[in-house]
Input
Amino acid sequence: MNKGIPQEGVILRIKPESQRITLLDSVEGKRMLLFSSYAPVGALITYSAFTRLGIPRLVLHELCAVPLRIAAHSLCFLHYALALCDVGIPLGSCVQEAYNILAWLCQENAILSSVQKDFFLAKLIMVLGLHTTQSYLCERCARVIRAMSVDTLSIVALELDCCAHLPRWIQQCLEEYVVKAGYERASDKYAG
Ligand SMILES: [Zn+2]
Output
């Protein structure tokens, strides 16, 4: 690892009691590091890492983007987006597309409508391969969501039936993967 070149990542989770953070690095993928400064969950940061006494540690370089507006407006949605990446990506692995859309979310920091949040989470679930066993979506609509760009969240053409079923499908995926993994159920409706 080159200590001179800062690495970039999004903070997925912080465990203050052990000063450990889970980070999704743009290249190295999901990592757990010891961290003694402060940066909020969801922040896009640059950092360097070094190992001391056998423990990998993070040195913060810069807080590049913090999704404060999203956190203020819809903390549940942000919580689930980060949690999906945490449970869906094994340590040491990088799902590049998931990183890209998560970094987009942090940088864009836009207030998304309820429908846009549905599409975003559905896209993330597809990218991570966290499909629930019970499918509420037809194959065509599943393909449309998989292929859509997060820049065009509001103009995705889904059949009405599938659109109506989308929130239930997402909720089931969240139950099956995020809540079962020990994450708190943020609320019944993440759109809040
Ligand atoms: Zn459909």
About this structure: The first strand starts at residue 7 and ends at 15.
